[in-house]
Amino acid sequence: MKTEARLFLGVAAFFWLAAIGYGIWTSTPNGYSHGTVEPVGVAALILSGGLVGIPGSFFLFVSRRIDPRPEDRNDAEIAEAAGDLGFFSPGSYWPVGLAGAATVAGLGLAFSQLWLLIVGLVLLMFMIGGLLFEYYIGGSRPTS
After folding, report:
1. Shared-domain flag, residues 70 and 27
2. Range 101-128 average pLDDT
């Protein structure tokens, strides 16, 4: 997790330094600006740095509480990272439906159609439930 934390926090630091540089660059009077800081670009860069800093700080927080993974150690061998990373459903159609429902909800937002947004959100909840419970066989089913 330390690798991911360094990556995200490095990008966040870049955005914040770019915001400072952009603010200085736009505040100098030249043929294109009038000597005032362009606030939208500076705010966008600061907020982008904050947005990237959230997962970076989460990964840093988590990396201090778990054992180091092979990716985080310099003396690790390649074979230490071998094995399964998790289960990924090979033949699931729920992600396609999820994308379609998100498209319908997005179109409802884009065209300011409340009825289309509601239909899209209902479909979205249905598709999320289907994706989550795809392999659920029931915890309270009788065994005999």
Report:
1. yes
2. 97
Q: What is the largest CA-CA distance in the chain?
A: 83
Same structural domain, 58 and 119: no
Residue 138 within a domain: no
In 3D space, the residue among 124, 126, 6 whose CA is nearest the CA of residue 55 turns out to be 6
From the list 76, 83, 88, 118, the residue with the least C-alpha distance to 101 is 118
pLDDT band at 79 (very low <50, low <70, confident <90, very high): confident
Check residue 37 and give its pLDDT.
84
Contacts of 101 (CB under 8 A, 6+ apart): 120, 123, 124, 126, 127
User: Which domain range does residue 123 map to?
Assistant: 94-132
Nearest to 120 by CA among 100, 104, 138, 142: 104
Q: How many domains does the chain have?
A: 2
pLDDT > 80? residue 28: no
